Amino acid sequence: MKWYNRLFWKIFVSIWAVSFFVLLATIVFVGAVTEQDRFKDVITAKSEGYAEAMVEKYEHKGFKTLIPNLPRPRPKHRGEDDHERGPRPGPGPGAGPDKDKHEDFRRAVWLNISERVFITDIERQKKVIGFKNFKRDSDSLYVFNLTSESGRVYKVEVDLHWDASPLTHLLATVLSLQMVLILLIASIGALLVSAIVTRPLNLLREHSQAIYRGELDRRTDEKLRKRGDELGELARDFDRMADYVQQTITSHQRLMQDVSHELRAPLARLQAAAGIAEQRMGEDDKAVKRIIKECQRLDQLIGEILSLSRLEQMDGHGERVWLYSLLQEWVDDAHFTYPKRHFNLTMKSDCEVSINVKLLERAVNNILGNACKHTAEGVDIDLTVDKTDQCVLCIRDHGAGVSDAELAQLCNPFYRGQSQAKGYGLGLSIAQRAVERLGGTLTLRNHPNGGLEAIIGLPCSCPP
What residue ranges do the domains of the chain occupy? Predict the structure, then answer.
């Protein structure tokens, strides 16, 4: 499974993204309104002080119109507002992105106050100070009367136009220290929520895999079962399901064993009776031959059923062995059993495994026997061993293969497909159970060049 498909990262990214956009929207819109109100308050307060100073200077110079004393303007850069012009001293100790933003704001107020104020001497109907291009927008104009110490009244107009760029405010918000801290806290919260949800699910997944491997007595952790939330209920339901599965499989195995053992006694008596009938009626009697043949088939079927039920009780672990010597021995046995067959054993890389040799022998012999039974006598059978991240044993016949519909059912017990007269449909089922007890996998497929191929994957005792 790829990392981006995991539930942990999906939950983490979802929580983090929602937190980011909600916080960003809140800070941008609420912060913009708050900063705009603060901007108007600061401009209003500073304009009153500036107006008092300019009126006093105006009267002191004999009621002469004042020329605004502005700092020399510098070129305006792209994305910079008009009210941000002026020298920018470097940040002092403890400065940060958010502090720099407010420092720039305060400097912009002082540097632009003269541009935003227009003072008129009401009695003389004369301009005291102000720019010719002063904006008189009714929506952003603040007007008040100022009375000087001499008792004269002046009209003061203040431009409160908010011309801050939304993009500039957005970038300042995203790069602010508060935003970084909030996102850090949101990330930690998302990690905690993701871990709280996915950790119990991973534990349940491990327990379900253990049951699939045949560890029917495996149950969830006690801490997980004692949880009072939905995950605790899921763990308790999982244990109840595991109990039911264990009881069902155990009773099924016990039933198969009991029935097989119970059939042994009447079968033995039937075989004895068939022997007596053979002595009385002669060896050439067709009825006696049929009885003896069916008794042999029934004995083989009972033996296969007992083998299938006993596999679940066998331990897959065992001694460490090399596959080459084992496979060579089993190929010799198969050649002795099927002398007209030709078996090709190819060892691309020998593998050392820690397994129950009897289980692997049963699986390999069943696969070889199945290939010999369902192909013509002149068809070769290839065995190939290779080593990747595990030991891979491929057994391939050069027959006609099977259909895709049959391929999915070949390992089902008692499934014989089109070959109703050959075998009992338990050979591949026993092979699959044996390989699973060894901790491996059995895969059946039609080879691209023809024939059926069985691929057994086993864990190696040492890395490749």
Answer: 3-68+96-184, 230-311, 320-458
**What is the per-residue pLDDT across 47-90, written as a single tens digit (0 to 9) for each?**
888 899 999 998 888 888 888 755 444 444 434 444 333 333 44
Fold of 320-458: Heat Shock Protein 90 (3.30.565)
Q: Whole-angstrom Cα distance, residue 36 to residue 20?
A: 23
Domain 230-311 coded CATH 3.30.430.20: no
**Mean of the pLDDT values across residues 80-107?**
43
Could you count the other beta carbons within 10 Å of the beta carbon of residue 370?
21
pTM for this model (two decimals)? 0.46
Q: What angle do CA 352, 358, 361 make, to 5 degrees?
A: 75
263 near 303, Cβ under 8 Å?
Answer: no
Closest CA to 456 of 448, 436, 373: 436
Q: Considering only CA atoms, which of 60, 71, 45 is closest in space to residue 156?
A: 45
Burial per residue of 52-91, b for 16 or more beta-carbon CB atoms within 10 angstroms, e otherwise: eebbeebbeeeeeebeeeeeeeeeeeeeeeebbbbeeeee
Q: Which helix (H) or strand (E) holds 453?
A: strand 452-458
Query: What does the pLDDT look like over 177-206, one tens digit per residue?
Result: 767 777 788 788 888 888 888 888 888 888
Q: What are the strands of the beta sheet with 343-347, ordered from one edge?
A: 343-347, 381-387, 391-397, 452-458, 441-446
Q: Which amino acid is at 288?
A: V
Q: How far apart are CA 411 and CA 215, in angstroms?
A: 21
